[in-house]
Structure formats: structure tokens, C-alpha cells
Amino acid sequence: MTTQQVTPRKAVDLQQIAVPARTRSKQRRWHRDLATQTGVVAAALVLWHIFSLSEMAQKAGMPSPIESLTRFVELLGVSVFWQSIGATIISWSIALLLSLGVGIPLGMGIGRSRRAADSGRFLIDFLRTIPSLAIIPLALLLLGPTRGMVIMVATFSAVWPVLIQAIYAAEHSDPVLSRVARSFRLKWTDKVRYVLAPEFLAFFWPGVRMAVTASLLVTVGAELIGGAPGIGQAIQAALLVNQQASMFAYVIAAALLGLGINAVLMLVQRKLLWWHPSLRKDQ
Amino acid sequence: MALNVPTKTSSRSRKRPWFKTLLWQSWLPLSALAVIWVASEQSTSVYFPPAAEVFRKISIVWFPDALVTDLLPSLGRLVLGFALAVLLGIAIGVLLGLFRSAETAVRPLTETARAIPGVALLPIAMMFFGTGESMKLVMIVFIAMWPIVLNTIEGVRSVDPALRNVMASFRITALDRFRSVYLPAAMPQIFSGARISLAIAVAVMIAVEMFGTPGGIGYFIRDAQQTFRIIDMWTGLVILGLFGYTLNVIFRALEDRVLRWQKRMAKHVQGES
User: Fold this and answer.
1) pTM for the full predicted model
2) B45 lies in a domain?
3) Is residue B232 situated within a structural domain?
4) Nearest CB to B117 within list A125, A135, A217
5) How many domains does chain B have?
6) Residue B52 near residue B237, CB atoms below 8 Å
7) What is the pLDDT of residues A126-135, one digit of tens each?
8) A208-230 pLDDT, tens digit each
9) Which residues of A touch B106 (CB under 8 A)?
10) Which domain holds residue B87?
């Protein structure tokens, strides 16, 4: 009786005192972090500027950050710029969807039987270790410097992490869960929503994340080396005509694209997998 | 229908003698090779030459000439670049892991460095270092380093806070703290970062070799394609596959050796509870 009376009051006290104090300090810390981060970025830009004035950078024709950024802003109004970014995004997303579409069903199928997993192990390990940029020459011979070439190479790089995680998911899925779903006579849609999706998403996610970064790297690489339309080719073209400022502007665009894709990934992760133990400590 | 489920799971977990596993693991690669061999026998396509031809060409081109002129330089570059990436990655990662405020301050830079598609930096590296050896090394180190940096930061932070108090009360020197506490604690995470970074290092190596001065397996494949020596190009791809596979096997053996204590400890802890 007495304990029942004491504990709630204590909890209320804690709430009244602790919560406002903590949020304020959290907010203050957030402000401080933002300030130092802006400072570091500004310092990096200043260093870049000083470096671009040095003799070595002058000889190489390195543009200053102001030149690069103004060129970047100028390019924002040019349709060619958006076309090459669009080309990269389209190639990348088709490659990603293809590797998900092939990798997940195939991996789930292979992972269901130990014999299939054993049979495929060497072949998957062997093909996975071939760096996908090395098949650019082969893809160039077959398809020429086209979007198909880029998609072929990028898919070849992105399919392996997805496939391996899908095999892993099928091998480690809990058979009890689907039996429980059956004994509760869940509807097909509810089974997907409440049983299959939560279980498998957490398994697929690391593979998806790796596939996203790998395919972006390889997409830009294939455009750069193979000469297919996209950011990579624009970088190479700007270098060939000695327009270093444009080249830097395109590299900035590539970096922003990478950052944007990463941000979207983190957002999806927070929306879909916030409940998963491995991610809960982040919040 | 529900009754046959348990039998299925029990058959999956049953132990199987090792030679049967070996048999299961080898039948598909061997038969795939056989199918490719037979199917390509009559091939008249320029792009897909007979497999027998490719393997005969491997013994002519690669043993021993191209092994010395192309594979050895690639291997040297990769080993040196990867070793530097690991050392730099661990050094930066430990520093940033220990000083939390410094890590938050430079996070925009590390995030950008990680998110940028590394090959896009190739032209910039070429501006400064030309197409020679230094450019190749700088690219490999700079791009392959980031997974190790990020994983080391995580690993260092996972050190038990109680250990920190113990180290403080025993007045353990910074070097000893690094050597006997932080490094071993971060080792599993460093290895999983290094595995990703090895794959990235091989990819970057191929990319820079395709652009750079002669010498290297990437240059060999690109050059063979541009001069339409298709069979040579295929030999390059086969050799590269073997190269990558061997690297992975070596890396896995090294990981097993270095992390043996950690796996034993995990088993021990699980066994007790």
C-alpha cells in the first residue's frame, strides 16, 4: 500500500524536474554541434581556398571553392546538367530494382534448402569477388556506351549483397512464426504485413544498404570509364576540355547525390526498422 | 499439412559427413564449367570465344609473362594501398572514437567522404598526381579507408565504461590503453569494416588501372578490349576472379586467426548463461 503511493509520486517528480531540463540541454547541445560542424566545414573550405592559391594547385589548374560553387549554381539553371543527373539516377534506380527483384526471390529460394545453398556457395563467392568495374569492357563490347551497359555493370555489383542477405534470411527465419500465423488463421495480407515483412526486412536491410552504395559507385564509375551518359561522363568530358571548375561542380553534384541517397536510406530505416534491437540504441 | 513442417526442419539441421558437403558444394561449379565448355565449343561469336581457347590462351599469355608484368604490380599496389588504408583508418577511427566532440564536429566531412561515389574523384586525383603510381595509391587509400574509420569509431565506443574507470584508476598509459584495450575491443568491428574496404580497394584498383599508366590487371583487360583481343580479355577476367577469390580466402583465414579469442569468449559467455 505504501509503496504504491510512493512510486507514482516519485515518477511525477522526476517527470516534472528531469524532462524539461533534459530537453533544454539536448537542444543546446544540438545548437553547439551545429555551430562546430558549420565551423569545420567553413574551415575546410578556407583550407581548400588557400590550397588552390598554392603553386602546385595553380599548375594543376585546381579551381577555388568560390569558382566551383558559383559554377555549380550556374549549372543548376542548365538543362544538360539536370539531364546527366537524371540519367545517373535512372540507371542507378533501374539497377537497384533489378538486383532486388532478382536477388531476393533467388536468395529466398536458395536459402530454403541446405543443398541448394551448398551448391551455390562457390559460384556465388567466385562471381562476387570479381570487381564489377572489371566487366565494363565486356559490357562495352556487348552493349556499347549506353544506359544498358551501365545497368548491366551496376546490377552485377548490387545483386550479390542482396542475394547473400536473402539466403541468410531464409536460412535463419523462424519456422514457428509462420506456424503461429497459420494457427491464428491470419489473412494472407495480414500475414505479409505482420509476420513476413517485419521478420525479413531486418534481414534484407544490410544487403539493401550495401547494394545502394555499391550500385551508385559503380554507376558513376561505368559512366566515367565507359562513357555512357550521366554524371561520370560529364566529369570526364569537363576534364578533357580543361574546364576544371565544371568538373568540380559535377563532383559536388555527385557528392550531394550520394548524401541525399544516404539521407533517404536513413529515413526509410527509421520509418521501417525503428523497432529492431540493433537500431534502437541509436535513438 | 501442418504435420510435415517439423520433419523438414529436423532434416535441415541434421549433421552431414564432410565429403557429402564437399560433393554438394562442387557439383554445380563443375557442371557449370562443363556446360560452358561444351556450349561454347562450336561458338562462332566474336564476343564469346570457346572456353577451351580461353584456357589455352591463359597458359600462353599469363604464365609467366603477364603474371610478372600485370598481376604482380596489381598485387603490390593492392597490398600496400590496403595496408595503408587499414593503418590510417584505425588511427583516425580511434582518435575520433575517443574524442566524441571532435567526431561530431567533423561528421559532415566524414559523411561526405563516405557518401561520394569514389570513382568521381579519379579525375581530381589525376589533376594532381598524373596517371602514375602515386595517383593509383592515393585513390586506393583514400576511398578504401572510410569503412574502417567508421567501424573503428563504433568499435572504440563499444568499450565497457567500467573498463575506462579501471584504466583511469590504474593510471594505464595511453599507448597501453590503445594496445591492450581499445584495439582488441574494436577488432571485430575493424575486421567487418576491413572486409568491405578490401572489396572497395580491389574495385578502385581496377578503375585506376584502366585509366592509368600500363601495368596491372585492370589495364590488361581494358587494353585487350580496346584492341579487340577478346580472348585475352576473357583470360584477364578469369585471372581476376581467381585473384579476388584467393584474396577473400586469405582474408577469412586471417580473420579467423586474429578473432579466435573473441569467438571463444563469445562461446564461453553463452555457455555459462
Assistant:
1) 0.81
2) no
3) yes
4) A217
5) 1
6) no
7) 888 888 888 8
8) 988 998 899 899 999 988 888 99
9) 37, 40
10) 54-272
In a domain, B107, yes or no: yes
Averages of pLDDT over each 10 residues, chain B, 273 residues: 42 64 81 83 78 81 76 90 94 89 87 85 85 89 92 86 84 84 86 89 89 84 86 87 88 87 76 55
Tell me the pLDDT of chain A averaged across its residues.
82
Interchain proximity B32–A123, CB inside 8 Å: yes
Average pLDDT over residues A190-207: 81
- CA distance from start to end of chain A: 36
Q: Which helix (H) or strand (E) holds B97?
A: helix B72-98
**A96 half-sphere exposure, CB direction, 13 A CA radius:** 19
In angstroms, what separates the C-alpha of A4 from chain B's closest C-alpha?
34
CATH class held by domain A65-280: mainly alpha
Note whether B237 contacts A39, CB cutoff 8 Å. no
Closest CA to B194 of B117, B59, B271, B84: B84
Asked if residue B122 is part of any domain, the answer here is: yes
Do B202 and A114 lie within an 8 Å CB cutoff? Answer: no
Can you give the CATH number for the domain in which B215 is found? Answer: 1.10.3720.10
What are the residue ranges spanned by the domains of chain A? 2-60, 65-280
- Among residues A67, A47, A88, A29, which one has the least CA distance to residue A235? A88
ipTM (interface predicted TM):
0.78
